[in-house]
Amino acid sequence: MSKAALSTSSSSAAAPVPASPRRGLLGAGALLALAGCGFQPLYGPASGAAGMAVDLRRELAAIRLDYIGERSGVLMTRALERRFTDAAGGETVAPKYTLQVNVVYGAEVLGYRSDGAISRLRFTATSNWVLLRRGSPPEEIKRGAVRTIDAFNVPDFQFFTAEISSDAMQRRLLDEMVEQVFLNVATNLRAYMRTTQG
Q1: What would the mean pLDDT of 108-130 be, rounded to a whole number?
Q2: Residue 85 CB-half CA count within 13 A
Q3: CA dihedral for 77, 79, 80, 81, sign (positive or negative)
Q4: Mean pLDDT over residues 60-68, rounded?
Q5: Is 179 helix (H, G, I), strand (E, B) or coil?
Q6: What pLDDT, in 10s, does the model give residues 129-156?
């Protein structure tokens, strides 16, 4: 191929593609359809019962967690508190809600080697949560549960490698649980705010 052909092909590839008016209309139509079915971004302003805008980010930052026992509970508490605080950009907000969370793990053997030793393990993590509005007595807003599953291989006579794989799997389980609990709580708190703010 000649140099001229190369330069021609590279310049034509770099040429900007004109925006299609049809593509813009389709995008606008999709947004209107989502708005028509009630879709709103999670962090967007929600309208309360009287149409008053409420700020979900500050409400999330007002959540405080009850104590969760054991090492995994402490790690989950820290990660969730960080998510709730970061939602409001680090702003300190007076507590209005309490979140109670527990974590239960289960293990299942998925594979054995010919000598009977375990070659693969699967772990299931289940987290039940309850969101309460502080008061006397506290008002339950919503409760729910999330479940995550992960697995890791147990290499033959490589105990250090197996330990590293187990730790990595537990971190993945915890990260997924934190993400699911956060999104569940945020979604349900938003729905609660829309029905009670006025």
Answers
A1: 89
A2: 11
A3: positive
A4: 92
A5: helix
A6: 999 999 999 999 999 999 999 988 887 7
Buried b (16+ CB within 10 A) or exposed e, 131-170: bbeeeeeeeebeeeebebebebbbeeeeeeebeebeeebb
Using CA atoms, how far apart are residues 73 and 102, in angstroms rounded to an integer?
Answer: 7
7 part of a folded domain = no
State the pLDDT confidence band at 45, using cuts at 50, 70 and 90: low
d(CA 43, CA 55): 8
In a domain, 37, yes or no: no
What does pTM read for this prediction?
Answer: 0.68
Q: What is the DSSP letter of 19?
A: P
| Strands 46-47, 53-54: pairing kind | antiparallel
Which are the contacts of 32, defined by CB distance < 8 A and separation ≥ 6? none
Residue 118's domain comprises: 42-196
Q: Are strands 139-153 and 46-47 parallel, antiparallel or unpaired?
A: unpaired
**Mean pLDDT computed over 46-52:** 44
How far is the C-alpha of 66 from the C-alpha of 51, rounded, in Å?
A: 33
Question: Residue 166 maps to which CATH number?
Answer: 3.30.160.150
DSSP assignment letter at 2: -
Does some domain include residue 81?
Answer: yes
